[in-house]
């Protein structure tokens, strides 16, 4: 209770935060309907934290609880994480419905392509989206470009694809042809750097890594029951916070996401030492797109290309 | 602690000249876990092996490292020796200090070679310490064979396998077996009649108790792996009941409609109900449905009226036959490059410009002209014939880069056939080089030139056109340096041999490789020329590349010996170097399944006792797995590993370096 009052006093709560009243109403109605009919056993959605300062995942199992569901630009979490097999307690509840923005649905699409979920075993409630805000203290009830992350500037799924139900009015937004924004500008800058400077840049960042594995824990696509970081025969990644182990971990993590990462940005958001993980993920995504013409998360039937054997694959790099 | 023995081979002077083998052995004796070391002149010799066996027993070794040549050479030898001494053969490892060390270092002071040999051997010792004893995998074998393609290569393979007591299914796309060889008039260099030597083999195949022939049939689907293939064969509707038909041929006589004759290379017309040639096997006609008036418009039906045993059945449908076999021989043959590609030679425009196979039919006594060589345009006997070689072959720009191998020989044969039938005729041959390597081949070409008066001109033809009923051939004679112009009555093009249309589709169905020309790839071009990379699938004849009849026949026979060897026991034993899945931590992300070039990964479900699926798992099919390790690299959680080359072993080797 003390903690709650501390939050309450720190941030003023006003109703202008609830800009999506209509969407919320429609969402709650749909969730209630699905739960009442028994189509789903649980709705994964967003709810307010106690101080109404940020949103937190909520798992609604009873129709009378749907009032807890909210939707607004502070709903940043990628809830598809809770569809993966490590959350066995959630899976035990039964068939889920998930409240998902377009970017979250891209992740769901990869999970389906990789056989982690079956499309028929989930209900996707797609939310149209005008962008999200990472830092709640910047949120004054109005969205503007400067408080949105790079992914929202370049979002082409503001109108969700693959959804069973779409909530909210269609959004009229065309992303720029050439990806732009902080992340992509930095990638361009890094590309022009000398190789050893680039190495220095990354070694400096990786030096801060404390191997808390938050990036992996929050990533919906890091669903392995046993991460390679946990394997000790042989020990692929040194466990101590040593530059060599840090490098190994960060490179292996990035390579394991090459062609799969959907740029939800959760890893960088979770990183306590602010390693610019989006940079490395998006650089690899670009490489894959250039080589294979593939962007992850648009077709739930297509397996990410880096791991697919194809007799027609280019072989000109083999010398 | 392990008890490892290290045996360093001097290989005469091959290794000893740049490696101090005594020093290597001495250094190795200091390694923890090594209890015995020695060096020896020839480890692979009988006394060398005997010595190894004795020491394994005497020293109670639990691991053996032989520092010698490449494991490709003698890994099997030493593993066998260890096995006979009671050691698991997979506890014996080879350290390659010849190809990868002594042969590439020329330092006579032996300094460099010795240091490197010590490193290589130390790596192998550390790797060996992590070796687990493995057992060979036994796969049951279904002792039946499938031969795809009923040309001479396929027939030979089928006969040889059948004679070995194995049941064979021979599938042929056309209405009769025989293939392209049935089209040839005479064969070089002996000039015996092609059909006279082929048809006895065709009849033998038909009458053989162990051979089942499906003509007018194609391969629909292939599943499974070596020893255990399931093949679906589409048996196209012949509209003739094979059980009832007596092959009397009255229907063919009565049929009032005609279509282009593919067997005669479109030189004449055949009936719509037909057998491709009189000696067809089986001698049962088929109805060419697209041209049949009864099938298309429900009129006519003359064949059904005349047929005594009522064998005609217009309602027949395609059938899918499923066969289970243990081995597959691919002998799908070739086709000629369409001459239409060579407009400058007038093919298609000038009626008397024909292909080599068309000339074969003209010269054949069973051909459309009864063996008389006449012009297709007016039926006159040509008094001069120009043969143009390398049409499409050795021509990277317009055709293919490779040599079609048989054209030099059959063109020489053509000039002889022509001379034998038209005594006052003159033949001219434009050639690039004469390639007549083969027993009695060169003599054959010399005979064509010296005895039968063929005029050989070394050079290319630039243009062929018509002038006053003659065909004018303009070309260069590079030996005299002159431009030549020949007024010919007929021009024969030796067009390139190509892989069949659809060769790539079949290869994908079978899971075998093919080159950029769609010829199938051998496992090894020299040492394993009839095997493919996919176990249990073999190659015979021109589907693997241009070749002549003797080569095709020997390849057919070679595949038969491979199949009979495979079928010599009920179970097939293979090296256990296959991938293995750690079932406890598999995520079923199917990366391995998508990465595997051999389709060796299967989905397996783990069910509760009510049959509900609890989870999915990847499973390696030992029959299909080739041990390439791609899945191991692809697996993110590293829950798949390659037996005999586990990550742990590789790590240990690297760490020892």
Written description of the protein model:
The complex is a heterodimer of chains A (319) and B (657). By secondary structure, chain A is α/β, with parallel strands linked by helices. Chain A is built from eleven helices and five strands, in the order ααββαβαβαβαααααα. Chain A has two domains: 22-167, no CATH class; 182-307, no CATH class. Chain A has helices at 2-10, 21-37, 88-91, 102-113, 150-153, 182-192, 195-206, 214-218, 243-257, 266-270, 277-292, and strands at 42-48, 55-60, 96-101, 123-127, 165-167. A five-stranded mixed β-sheet of chain A has the order 2-1-3-4-5. In chain A, a hairpin with a 6-residue loop joins strand 1 (42-48) and strand 2. In chain A, helix 6 (182-192) packs across helix 11. The longest helix of chain A is centred in the N-terminal third of the chain and has 17 residues, at 21-37. The radius of gyration of chain A is 20 Å and the shape is globular. Chain B has 657 residues and is an alpha/beta fold. Chain B is 27% helix and 25% strand. In chain B, helix 13 (441-450) links the parallel strand 22 (426-431) and strand 23 (455-458). The chains are: A alpha/beta (319), B alpha/beta (657). The interface between A and B is medium-sized, with 20 and 25 residues.
